[in-house]
């Protein structure tokens, strides 16, 4: 089970990321300042870091710089509200493996976490997901019904992936919104219902069941 260090000072975002990573089978640890984050990162106890830039004590760029000075090869995914080209280049040239701007979609974040862990030789579980005739190849982001490949948009695939990873479990619309559309979602939106309709048309009406008063369940 991969251990993920989340260095993020916004409590709402840190809680959102940690809860989501835990539901996907990872073991997250959250710290809220750069100095503690650097100490934890150098402890040898983690497989990957999700790192904010605007941190108290020591900003994310300095954390990155110190990590590389210590010859640490720990993969770092920068997660920040700063989205200029200059910021992106600074993070990547400073040693980050990846860069995501806030607001972000959790499904995209966890896909990038898995990608970076694979690049380091980490074993990542649940690369293929299936329910009935439907199969998702998570590694290549491809969907199949039987032997037929089905074209899904990135958001459709993310929704199908969340449902199949929690197969048999009733997920609320709010849970699906937060996983697929991000922590800045509109809880009054009907976008989940719309996208469930898309999945039913493309992957079959039996894939997703409506759970009255709760939300949806796959399988």
From TrEMBL:
Keyword Transcription regulation in annotation: yes
GO CC annotations, alphabetized: cytosol; protein-DNA complex
SUPFAM superfamilies: CheY-like (SSF52172)
Keyword terms of this UniProt record: DNA-binding, Phosphoprotein, Transcription, Transcription regulation, Two-component regulatory system
Keyword Protease: no
One of the protein's GO biological processes: regulation of DNA-templated transcription
InterPro entries: CheY-like_superfamily, OmpR/PhoB-type_DNA-bd, Sig_transdc_resp-reg_receiver, WalR-like, WH-like_DNA-bd_sf
Protein name: DNA-binding response regulator, OmpR family, contains REC and winged-helix (WHTH) domain
Organism per entry: Aeromicrobium choanae
Phylogenetic placement of the source organism: Bacteria, Bacillati, Actinomycetota, Actinomycetes, Propionibacteriales
């Amino acid at each position: 089970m991969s251990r993920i260090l989340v260095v993020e000072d916004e409590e709402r975002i840190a809680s959102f990321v940690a809860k989501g990573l835990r539901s996907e089978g990872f073991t997250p640890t959250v710290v809220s300042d750069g100095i503690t984050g650097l100490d934890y990162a150098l402890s040898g106890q983690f497989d990957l870091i999700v790192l904010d830039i605007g941190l108290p004590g020591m900003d994310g760029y300095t954390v990155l710089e110190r990590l590389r000075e210590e010859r640490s090869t720990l993969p770092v995914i920068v997660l920040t509200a700063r989205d200029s080209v200059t910021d992106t280049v600074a993070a990547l040239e400073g040693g980050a493996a990846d860069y995501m701007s806030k607001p972000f979609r959790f499904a995209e974040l966890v896909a990038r976490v898995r990608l970076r862990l694979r690049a380091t030789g980490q074993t990542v579980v649940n690369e293929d997901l299936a329910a009935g005739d439907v199969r998702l190849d998570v590694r290549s982001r491809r969907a199949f019904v039987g032997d037929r490949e089905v074209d899904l948009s990135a958001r459709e695939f993310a929704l199908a992936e969340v449902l199949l990873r929690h197969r048999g479990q009733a997920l609320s619309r709010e849970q699906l919104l937060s996983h697929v559309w991000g922590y800045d979602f509109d809880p009054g939106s009907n976008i989940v219902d719309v996208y469930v309709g898309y999945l039913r048309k493309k992957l079959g009406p039996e894939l997703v069941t409506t759970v009255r008063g709760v939300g949806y369940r796959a399988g």
